[in-house]
Amino acid sequence: MVNGWFTDAPEGFRLLGTRCSACTAVFFPREDAWCRNPHCPGGGALVEVPLSPRGRVWSYTDGRYRPPAPYVSDPDAPWEPYTLVAVELEAEGMVVLGQAAPGVTVADLAVGMEVEVVGGVLNEDAGATWTTWRFKPVEGAR
C-alpha cells in the first residue's frame, strides 16, 4: 500500500488527494509540499480530501505481456494479463489510471461507462500484502 493514497474507511474505499486552499486545484497522487498549479495565486495550504468514488471510463486497454527491462518482473512467476482503465472522476474532472477489478476485461468496458473505485490486492509475498485501488463497473451501468 502507498501510504496516504487511499483509505478503506467505514463509508467506503476512497482515493485521497490534496486540494490547494488558494486556487482549489485538486491533485492525485497527493501533493504535500506545494501547489502544482502554475496559475495558483498564492500557494495556499494543501488539505487532504477524499476523491469521488465514481467516475466514467475515459479510456482502457489490456496488458498482455510482461514488462520489458529495466522494469522488475519475476520471470519464474506466472503472468496474468490485466486490464488498465483511465477514469475521469465525477466531481474533480481529473483522469486517474488504475487496474480493473479481477474478472473485468476490455470486453466488459465502454468509454463513458460509470465505474467505481474499490480496494484490491496487487501482490502478496513473504507474508506482506500490497493493496491498491481498482475500478469496476457500477451495477447496471453500460
What does this structure look like?
It holds the Pfam family zf-ChsH2. This is Benzoylsuccinyl-CoA thiolase. Residues 14-46 form the ChsH2 rubredoxin-like zinc ribbon domain. The protein is mostly beta strands and 142 residues long. It folds into two domains: 6-50, no CATH class; 54-137. The chain is built from no helices and nine strands. It has strands at 6-9, 12-20, 26-27, 46-50, 54-63, 82-89, 95-100, 114-125, 128-137. The strands form two sheets. The protein has a five-stranded mixed β-barrel. A hairpin with a 2-residue loop joins β8 (114-125) and β9 (128-137). The two termini are 31 Å apart. The model has no long low-confidence stretch (mean pLDDT 89).
- Specify Rg, calculated over alpha carbons: 17 Å
Strand content: over 45%
Mean pLDDT: 89
The helix-strand sequence is: EEEEEEEEE
Q: Describe the biggest sheet?
A: 5 strands, mixed, barrel
Organism: Streptomyces katrae
Domain ChsH2 rubredoxin-like zinc ribbon: 14-46
Pfam family, one: zf-ChsH2
InterPro entries: ChsH2_Znr, NA-bd_OB-fold, Thioester_dehydratase-like
